[in-house]
Amino acid sequence: MPQTLRPENEDQLLDAVNWALSRKIPLNVFGLGSKSSLGQAVSVEQGLDMSALSGILSYEPSELVLTAKAGTPLHEIQSALSEHNQSMAFEPVDLSVILNGKEPSNEADGTVGGMIAAGFAGPRRIRQGGVRDHVLGFRAISGRAELFKSGGKVMKNVTGFDLSKLMAGSMGTLAVMSEVTIKVLPVPEKSRTVLVQGLDEPVAIAAMRAAVNSPHEVSAAAHLPQSVAARSGVDLVAGSGAAVTAVRVEGPGASVETRCASLRKLLAPFGELEELHSQRSARFWAEVRDASFWRTTPPDTTIWRLSVPPSRGAHIAAAITRECGAEALFDWGGGLIWLALPDSRHKIVRAALDEQDGHATLIRASDSIRTTVPAFHPPSPSLAALSRRVKSAFDPHGILNPGRLYPTDAA
After folding, report:
1. 160 and 60 in one domain?
2. What's the whole-model pTM score?
3. What pLDDT, on a 0 to 100 scale, did the predictor assign at position 411?
């Protein structure tokens, strides 16, 4: 078994990639391993451990910009931000809750580089955008063993090709980031969540769309069927005995109170209302963000994450549920569906997305399923060809996480 490479600075990282390139040895690039079971199951013996490239390099709260080494643990960044009442506004998803059975908490596992490489954003995405929209710049080593940088360290100086968006979601298959710069924002002063009880999926989607399209600046909208809501750690949700549709507003206290009152009037015709404040609201949206309702389900429960047109969310979920009895959770106003299935049923899941302009990602499954079922939605022929050209430009010999995104990317 080869010894894992563990560079402690950028020069050592460059040397490590250069060594692997010269010998055409594929590298399994990882940080703290919190997402090691995400993506295709691949067999790459030579590890490249990024966890020693750690530390916040600069943080200017007044400029809303933070720069850190790529192996910096997320909990360290979140701790530094909380001291100045700031956060990563896109609500990074903590996948270790459902991948590794971690207890839900306000401190995410993993590294900042891994967060960008995975590219998963939480409920606030409908208002603040995704991970890629908050990456200002980075430094990285390509599969050609070349150091390059993109973007800048202040928002007004981000020019040229926006390679940050290309790195987000690339799963370490294009380059190994050594340093990243992200945009941060103040934590909202107040948060309130309006709950509507007892709606079926089509009506819930209609209620969420009405709220999201209203002038009330909704920051999150989700729907939990009764079986999912019953597992919540928030008493008003678990004790409702019904499906729960939730809409959140955030901001200055007076504004939140006014907008929340207006939302209650808007949503009153849909059903009985409740309201979550402060800690209850925060805990509920952390559950939705991490899909922690399935944290303690049997290990063979397969979990999918579907991105779909919001208007088609209920129809797609119903089509899959009829075939295999899945449980669903709707986020992003119906545009994101978390699915829990007794096994992969990948043909049923992906058939439901045919001609729907959506994609399905296999989040949790056994190694045997991850070996045989594409974890990421198979791209169209034209998109696959483009992806191969991009991969070839950055990593022509396929030494960086080969096969992690698509089996055809394996060296």
Report:
1. yes
2. 0.93
3. 44
